[in-house]
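Quick one: structure tokens for this chain, please?
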Amino acid sequence: MLGPDDGTPVYRIELTGLEPDERVGLRGEASLSDADWHALTLRFARWDKTAPGYFPSILQAIGAHPEVRAADLAAKAGVETPKFKQDVRKLKELGLTESLEIGYRLSPRGEAVLEKLREHRL
């Protein structure tokens, strides 16, 4: 028998609807469709209204300095660490970065985006 023998109710909780994390699938995609690229450039353009070139610069910094502490990358970017981490999470939601025990690295998708940004000089 499960639970105490004193008549205390025992509850069973069943969780449903748990789906795989979409970011994991996105991270592994090393090629970008035209639609993916268009959607990402629209997102970057919207973000650039408040800080032009900021998010591509984060991708470049992570690409050039993987496994570097967020505080160090934030200092180089001239941003407070909590804001930097929040912004990297935005990139992670798009499947562009991966969190490591220390620091970050670009996912294959992030590397593809960074290459496209360089090609288009964005």
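The chain has one domain: 22-119.
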